[in-house]
Structure formats: structure tokens, C-alpha cells
């Protein structure tokens, strides 16, 4: 820790950060490193929804579900458990989950991560105020409630990183018990008998997958032709096939019109008049930015019709000295993107070297089983002619390591620029695809040629060997 970050000088640049999520706390750390006098205002806890109610909790829950799925498939590898029966007999008992204990662990880990973020900020000399904040002009931040209500922060640079909240439908009001948003699922103490998930985007698919693996009967209601309409079509097809094979009910082209609770039963009414009855319902139909009532218009900060803050590629808003980062900007709703936006904002505002945000090299993952990880240009863009590229897709079923691990579903897909062979994107559908996508991300970021990837050594046997094999096949196609 440098002296200037621990004890800012009187002429240090004053930085105010509204929101303590990844965009906010990463910006604060960069600003402190560069010698600024930094104040963060956060109402719910450091780490924001990413740490407290979204990414960290959901992925912790998913980790438990993933273990359950692994145990469920262990018999194929020759593993038997006490009471597990034989290949020709039914098991005497099944592996079950204690949801109260799982969710207790989820909350404990989230709180611990939040505490770690606070400790890091305090170590770097960042001032932390608790409460909801709002702008009084572009250079004044006011704390309106909470422990530090009434505090005023004068700033030379202001960063808005206020995140987003679950979208709530007029006829599907959450009650926190049977009708739930993704922020409320961690209060459940018993596994739902029949969980209905409304919405088949990333959040809906992840929760549907998790609760199916934990042992609940799940119905996934999708208004589109397939699950994950925004993802690679081949990847979505694989996942939907896995869902159906595992016994999940997937209702395609079925828009939910209303969700009602009747005692211990939840009834979802579809637009065509059909109804689905279950014990619980998670409504996962998008998010809205937390920008209302912050004084943005009065401060000269422009927003879109959806309420998102308009920013350029270095996170500047329309108001001089005001920056924004994270889900409130409408850019990719990923913690990694929010963090980078926050860092870029401070590098730019405080005069350090900075490169504009490049979304082409952003990798993202859907944490289902199997996982779906993507980076760069998509096959849809290549097929439409928006990008000129060649495509190779290799099923994991032919990979030796996949056979050893009992992996049947998934593939590696690699895209390269026609003619030059430059890697421009890829898709991995596999267990731990979030880890396997990294070499593809590196190739996209550094503009590597497929031959660069093909000539690098890979371990045999390994799942990553399929990435090198795809690159070798693209060299043949490029000749």
C-alpha cells in the first residue's frame, strides 16, 4: 500500500463511488492505488448483489448441484455407494440434499466474501459510508438513509455503479415464500416438490438446472422456441436435450401470463390458457437498472428509455466528471465486465494509461451442467455474413479424457477469420467450460492464428486437446 493511497494529500483527486459491487469496489481500488481520496457509498453491503444475492450465492448453490449430478452419474464409472443397489436392482436409498444447510453455507460464504471486500478497501484507505446515495449535481453525492444518513461527499470524479434488480411482472408479484425472485431463493429451507421456473435465459436455465440436480421436479417455462435464446444454438440444443433426458419439463413457446399463489400451491397461467401447478415458482424474466430517483437527469446524466446510463468505451457519461459501470449501463451484465468498466473509468479519470472496453474479447459462461462458455464472434454472425469466418465443431464424445470421465454431452467449436486464420471466437460446452474457454479467450484477445493454437502442446488425454485439434482442422480448411 502506497503512502498516498493510505493517507491522501490535501490536493488529491476526490473520487466518490455510488455502489459497492464489482464496478464500484474495483474502481475504488484503482483510484486509491493512483493516490486519490476515495469514498464508497453502499446500501446493502460491499460486493453488491454480485456477492450477496447473485453470482457468489448462485454459483455456490450450483456447486452443490454439480456434485449431486456427479454422484448421480458415478455408477457408470463403476462406483457404488452403501445402499446403492446393483446394476440390476434398484437402490435402497438415494443421495439427498439438506437445502437449509446448503443455503446456510451460501449465505455464510457470501457474507465472508463481502467482508473480504470491505477489508481490502479499508486496507487501501478507502472511506466507506453505509446507506442509499443520490446525486446533487455532478460533483456532490448525498447519503439519504442508513447509518451515514445526511453525509455529503464532494467529488472531482463520480462513479455510478448501482446495479440492477430482478424485473417483477404485474401479475407475478413475489412473496418471498412460494413466488420468488432470484434474490429470494436462499431463504428456502426445504427442497421444492415441484419448482416452476419462468424464463429460460441464463438465470432461469441455471436455477432450473441446479434444482433439478438437487432433486426437485422442475418445469421450465420458455416464451421462445428454445432455452437460452441468446446463446449459441448448438449449445442450447445440447442443454435442452440434457434437461429433457433428466426428466425436466421444458415448455417451449409458452409465455407466462400470470403467477398466483393458492395456499401451498402456485399456479402459472400461460398465454394460451394452459395452467401449470407447482409448489414454488422462480420468476427470472430479466432485470431493470437501479437508476430511478438518483438525481441523474438533474445532474446532466443521460439515460436510455430502459433507464440504463449511457456511457462511452471509457465509461464516461454525458456529465463531465461522472462515469458509470456495471449492470446499470446496459453493457454485458457480467461481474467481469463491470469490474473492467470501473477500472477503465478510474484509469481514464486519473490520467493513467487506458484502453477502451473491447467487448469482443469478453468471455461468458452459463453455469449449467454441462456449462456453456463463449467468447468473440458467434456462429450466427458468421452465418449471416456479418463476420467472415470458418467454423470447426468437434464433439467431446470422441475425446479420450471425456470418455474416461463419462462425459457424453458437449463440444468444442472454434471460429477463425477466412483467409488469415486469426481466431475470432469459440464455444465450449463441457463440464468446467468456464475454465476451458480461457485459451480461446487468450487467442481472441491476442489475435493469435489457428496455427499458433495448433502448435502449442496440450496434455494427453485432456479436454483442452479438442481445442488444439479444432485449430489443426481449421488450418486444413484455410489452405
Automatic annotation (TrEMBL):
Pfam families: Pyr_redox_2, Pyr_redox_dim
Domain Pyridine nucleotide-disulphide oxidoreductase dimerisation: 362-471
Residues that bind FAD: 59, 133, 327
Entries under Gene3D superfamilies matching the protein: 3.30.390.30, FAD/NAD(P)-binding domain
Residues annotated as binding NAD(+): 199-206, 286
PANTHER family, per database record: MERCURIC REDUCTASE, NAD(P)H DEHYDROGENASE (QUINONE)
NCBIfam families: PRK07845.1 (NF005883)
Quaternary structure and interacting proteins, as annotated: Homotetramer.
Protein name: NAD(P)H dehydrogenase (quinone)
Lineage: Bacteria, Bacillati, Actinomycetota, Actinomycetes, Kineosporiales
Amino acid at each position: 500500500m502506497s503512502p498516498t493511497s493510505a493517507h491522501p494529500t490535501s490536493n488529491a483527486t476526490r473520487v466518490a463511488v455510488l455502489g459497492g459491487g464489482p464496478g464500484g469496489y474495483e474502481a475504488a481500488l484503482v483510484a486509491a492505488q493512483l493516490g486519490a481520496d476515495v469514498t464508497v457509498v453502499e446500501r446493502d453491503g460491499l460486493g453488491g448483489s454480485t456477492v450477496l444475492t447473485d453470482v457468489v450465492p448462485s454459483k455456490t448453490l450450483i456447486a452443490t448441484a454439480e456434485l449431486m449430478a456427479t454422484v448421480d452419474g458415478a455408477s457408470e464409472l463403476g462406483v457404488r455407494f452403501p445402499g446403492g443397489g446393483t446394476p440390476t436392482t434398484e437402490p435402497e436409498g438415494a443421495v439427498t440434499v439438506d437445502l437449509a444447510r446448503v443455503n446456510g453455507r451460501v449465505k455464510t460464504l457470501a457474507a465472508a466474501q463481502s467482508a473480504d471486500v470491505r477489508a481490502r478497501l479499508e486496507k487501501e484507505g478507502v472511506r466507506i459510508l453505509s446507506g442509499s446515495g443520490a446525486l446533487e449535481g455532478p460533483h456532490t453525492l448525498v447519503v439519504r438513509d442508513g447509518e451515514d444518513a445526511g453525509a455529503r461527499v464532494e467529488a472531482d470524479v463520480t462513479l455510478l455503479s448501482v446495479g440492477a434488480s430482478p424485473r417483477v411482472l404485474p401479475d407475478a408479484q413475489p412473496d418471498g415464500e412460494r413466488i420468488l425472485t432470484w434474490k429470494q431463493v436462499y431463504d428456502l429451507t426445504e427442497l421444492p416438490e415441484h419448482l416452476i421456473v419462468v424464463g429460460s435465459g441464463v438465470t432461469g436455465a441455471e436455477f432450473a438446472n441446479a434444482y433439478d440436480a438437487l432433486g426437485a421436479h422442475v418445469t421450465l417455462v420458455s416464451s421462445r422456441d428454445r432455452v437460452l435464446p441468446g446463446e449459441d444454438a448448438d449449445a442450447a440444443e445440447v442443454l435442452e436435450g440434457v434437461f429433457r433426458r433428466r426428466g425436466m419439463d421444458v415448455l417451449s413457446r409458452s409465455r407466462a401470463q400470470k403467477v398466483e399463489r393458492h395456499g401451498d400451491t402456485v399456479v402459472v397461467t400461460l398465454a394460451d390458457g394452459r395452467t401449470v401447478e407447482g409448489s414454488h415458482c422462480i420468476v427470472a424474466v430479466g432485470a431493470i437498472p437501479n437508476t430511478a430517483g438518483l438525481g441523474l437527469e438533474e445532474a446532466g446524466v443521460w439515460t436510455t428509455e430502459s433507464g440504463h446510463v449511457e456511457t462511452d468505451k471509457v465509461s464516461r457519461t454525458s456529465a463531465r466528471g461522472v462515469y458509470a459501470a456495471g449492470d446499470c449501463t446496459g453493457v454485458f451484465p457480467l461481474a467481469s465486465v463491470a469490474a473492467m468498466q470501473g477500472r477503465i473509468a478510474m484509469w481514464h479519470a486519473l490520467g493513467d494509461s487506458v484502453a477502451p472496453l473491447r467487448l469482443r474479447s469478453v468471455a461468458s459462461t452459463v453455469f449449467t451442467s454441462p456449462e456453456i462458455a463463449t467468447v468473440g464472434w458467434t456462429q450466427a454472425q458468421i452465418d449471416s455474413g456479418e463476420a467472415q469466418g470458418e467454423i470447426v465443431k468437434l464433439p467431446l464424445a470422441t475425446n479420450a479424457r471425456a470418455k474416461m470421465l463419462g462425459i457424453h454431452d458437449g463440444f468444442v467449436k472454434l471460429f477463425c477469420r477466412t483467409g488469415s486464420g486469426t481466431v475470432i471466437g469459440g464455444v465450449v460446452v463441457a463440464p468446467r467450460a468456464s475454465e476451458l474457454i480461457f485459451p480461446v479467450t487468450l487467442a481472441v484477445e491476442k489475435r493469435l492464428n489457428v496455427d499458433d493454437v495448433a502448435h502449442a502442446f496440450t496434455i494427453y488425454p485432456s479436454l483442452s486437446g479438442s481445442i488444439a485439434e479444432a485449430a489443426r482442422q481449421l488450418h486444413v480448411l484455410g489452405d
